[in-house]
Every structure is written in structure tokens, then in C-alpha cells.
Q: What sequence folds into this?
């Protein structure tokens, strides 16, 4: 398995050494760590240097765009020359927390899409309660980057719209929650060749550890739930998502 979106630098209860060790022991071969805050960019660079299974994505999360400066474009361009920087992310729109700077979110989102296109890197998209604007902006501005809808939270219909555009759907721990009916429907309907696995650790911990801190080793619970919902084997989910990860991220 590959955990395609995991903030291991934000895990507090265990050390990063332990996080990586637990993941490897539970069959996770690679971890992709996004930046969210501008300060994460340097942390991601040191993690990819230190840990062989760790790969990185660079970008600024929509809730953190108040700290955006155009200098970051040059920094990300320079850092993305590193062979283990494999995507731009996580970037997008978040209308859940604070709607007072939606226009700034859109502006910075578009700048980072253009940067990903220029660097020819895939993009990990954060879309929270902003499906329509996220879709419209991607459709208008993205030219050549592969798109991954990280922590997908839309309906089956929205999932189908994304699939039509050639985008990928990344599913995490929410699918294991009993009341996540919409998410389970998406998990059943998503084409297997467009599915990616992730944890978004330290958030959204899957059952049976819901309520505790998440870590990449728990991606297996997501894969198990996917297999159960789709009435297939764990191996089929594992093989398909590994292949998809390779196609999108080149690892
Ligand atoms: Ni995230």
C-alpha cells in the first residue's frame, strides 16, 4: 500500500521514526507528505532526505493562504528539482472554516495550478464545501497536470463529473465511519483505475481507532473497508491503488 496523503510532520503522540517504522511493518511501502502551512515546505524537504519511503508535495493549503507570498513560487520551483518532490499540494478551496477570504483562496489556487502545470507535476486538491468553484477553476485553468481529489467528500454524481475529466479520487478513513453513507456509495461506484488510498493523518482516523490520532499504518483499514464494500479482495484494492499511484505520481 501507499499512503498518498499523510501529514506525518503533524503527528504528535509518537515520533516520526515510529510513524515510519509502523507503516513499513504494516505493509505501507511509500508515504507522500504534503505541505499545508508555508513552514511545512522546509519540513517536507528534510523528511524526504531523511526517510527513504517518504516523498513530498509542496504547496499552500487554502486555509493558510493569508501567509502566501509570490516568493513561494520561486522556492517551490527550486525545491521541486529534488527527485522526491513529486507533486504540488495540498492546494484548493475551503469554504468550511472562514469565508472572508474566498477570493484570495481562488487567486492563490490558480497561481499554484499554473505552477504545477509549468513543472508538469500532479496536484493534490483540497476541496471542502467548495465543489463547484474547485471544479470550475480546475476546468478553466488546469492544462496538463494530473488531478487527485484528496479526501474526496462529494456525492456520487460529483465523483462521476471528476472521473469524466480524467481526475483521480483519493479515499481515506471517513469511508470506515458507520454514518458515512454518501462516502460508502462513492467508494462502491468509483472506477477501480481511478482510486487512491490515503490517511490524511493525523486527522480522520479510521475505525477501529476513530477518536485517536491517525497514522499511515492505518491505511490498511481503508483498503479493507474498500474491499468489503466492493465485495472484492484486499489484494485487488492494493494492486489497483498501487498501480494508480504509480501512474499519477511516478512512484
Ligand atoms: Ni491533508
A:
Amino acid at each position: 500500500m501507499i499512503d498518498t496523503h499523510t501529514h506525518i510532520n503533524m503527528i504528535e503522540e509518537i515520533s516520526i521514526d515510529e510513524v515510519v517504522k509502523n507503516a513499513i511493518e504494516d505493509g505501507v511501502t511509500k508515504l507522500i507528505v504534503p505541505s499545508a502551512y508555508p513552514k511545512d515546505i522546509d519540513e517536507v524537504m528534510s523528511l524526504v532526505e531523511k526517510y527513504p519511503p517518504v516523498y513530498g508535495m509542496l504547496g499552500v493549503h487554502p486555509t493558510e493562504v493569508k501567509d502566501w507570498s509570490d516568493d513561494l513560487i520561486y522556492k517551490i520551483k527550486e525545491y521541486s528539482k529534488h527527485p522526491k518532490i513529486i507533486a504540488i499540494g495540498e492546494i484548493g478551496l475551503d469554504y468550511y472554516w472562514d469565508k472572508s477570504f474566498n477570493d484570495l483562496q481562488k487567486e492563490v489556487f490558480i497561481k499554484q495550478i499554473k505552477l504545477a502545470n509549468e513543472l508538469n507535476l500532479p496536484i493534490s486538491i483540497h476541496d471542502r464545501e467548495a465543489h463547484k468553484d474547485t471544479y470550475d477553476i480546475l476546468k478553466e485553468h488546469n492544462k496538463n497536470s494530473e488531478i487527485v481529489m484528496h479526501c474526496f467528500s462529494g456525492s456520487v454524481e460529483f465523483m462521476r463529473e471528476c472521473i469524466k475529466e480524467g481526475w483521480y479520487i483519493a479515499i481515506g478513513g471517513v469511508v470506515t465511519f458507520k454514518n458515512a453513507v454518501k462516502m460508502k456509495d462513492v467508494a462502491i461506484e468509483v472506477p477501480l483505475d481511478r482510486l487512491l488510498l490515503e490517511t490524511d493523518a493525523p486527522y480522520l482516523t479510521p475505525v477501529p481507532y476513530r477518536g485517536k490520532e491517525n497514522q499511515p499504518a492505518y491505511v490498511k483499514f481503508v483498503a479493507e473497508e474498500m474491499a468489503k464494500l466492493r465485495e472484492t479482495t484486499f489484494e485487488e484494492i492494493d494492486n489497483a491503488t498501487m498501480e494508480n499511484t504509480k501512474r499519477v505520481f511516478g512512484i
In short: Residues 192 and 240 are 7 Å apart (CA to CA). Strands lie at 2-3, 30-33, 54-58, 85-94, 123-128, 147-150, 168-171, 195-197.
